[in-house]
Design a protein that fits this description.
Beta-carbonic Anhydrase, Chain A, 169 residues, single chain, five-stranded mixed β-sheet
Length: 169
């Protein structure tokens, strides 16, 4: 976590504690919960950490989203090869809904994903059309599961290119 984010959160907690102590009726965490209405699922690939953060900032969401990271993003949440990953995603989503009252889920997959190679046993990056088709399929499968369980959540399915560009799926 960046120092700026830690300092901001520490400052907000201090203010809330002061307000609560002054009898203003604010509960610790009240402002933090209102700050966040998006949960982002993205891949662990280090090449895309900065680009993902930049993308979220362009959406006006710098430091305003919960972030779950699984290798393969959508595929990571769906794979039977590592079943605990999917369980982890669903548990984090449930907590984000309860704690931060999120309204949206963004899922960002990316091209040239090593987790897709490991889990599916194929280098999809050799065929960009097929790669996009497979990512779209996994993104839509996860989206369908989320929509079925949490029909009020808005969903955005995204695919990031190697240059950081993002397209909607």
């Amino acid at each position: 976590m960046k120092t700026e984010t830690r300092d901001r959160r520490a400052f907000v907690r201090m203010l809330l504690a002061s307000a609560a102590g002054a009898g203003l009726g604010l509960k610790p965490g009240a402002l933090l919960a209102a700050d966040t209405d998006v949960l982002l699922l993205s891949c662990m690939d280090f090449r895309f950490v900065d680009e993902t953060e930049r993308y979220m900032a362009t959406r006006g969401l710098r430091n305003k989203y919960d972030h779950v990271i699984l290798a393969g993003s959508s595929l990571g949440a769906l794979t039977e090869k590592y079943p605990s990953w999917g369980k982890t995603f669903w548990e984090h989503l449930e907590v984000a809904i309860q704690l931060h009252h999120i309204k949206k889920v963004f899922v960002i997959d990316h091209r040239d994903c090593g987790a897709y190679k490991v889990i599916l046993g194929e280098d999809l990056a050799k065929d960009p059309f097929k790669e996009k088709t497979v990512h779209a399929s996994k993104l839509k499968e996860l989206s369908g599961q989320i929509a079925k369980k949490y029909p009020k959540l808005e969903l955005e399915l995204l695919l990031m290119g190697l240059n950081g560009s993002v397209e909607t799926v």
